[in-house]
Sequence to fold (213 residues):
Amino acid sequence: MSVERRPSELARLAEVRRVGGERTAEVAAVLAAAFAKDPLQAWIMEGVAAAERPARRRDWWSFMIRHGPPGSEVHVAGDGAGAACWHPPDAGKPPAAVTAAFRAMVADLAGERTEAVLASLAAMAARAPAEPHWHLAAVGVVPDRWGNGTGGRLLAPMLARCDRLGLAAYLESSNPRNLGFYCRLGFVVTGEVRTVDERVPVTLMQRPPTAGR
Fold:
């Protein structure tokens, strides 16, 4: 049975809002659900007991949101079904304390594989474009809302801003199923990097600022 929605409710569902730290737990839960089958995240956490992984993914994304570079933005869908995290141009390196805390988190997750995980993530970071760009650090939609346009709506405001400012957008994706979605938004494949054990390929994609014109 279909449910007819009021115009005001449809407008709310389509709305994308920027949120602050008070929504960190909610956003982390959305991303944890969205990334449940992400190849890179699964590789990082392969030594974690299956029953513990949902909570560990929430902890991971909570850390990433709380310790994003100054000027980072978190956008959420109006109904809370999706979220996107953006890092600003010229974000620079994180403070030493954040780097140490991240290393400790990875060590807790990966154990003896810690150095392999850190080296793989460092290799990804080293391939970021040299020119100023907005980095799409994460975008995710809860699984029962996949395929309804939420992801595209989430990214539209920042991509439009990039077009206005003449800035590129950049992302890394380890899930081949998502590449077509990004290509439809104007991203193009610029390369690939693999985890140090060659098991997980990560596709690098960039969107020129003219893509939306």
Observations:
- The CA atoms of residues 45 and 109 lie 6 Å apart.
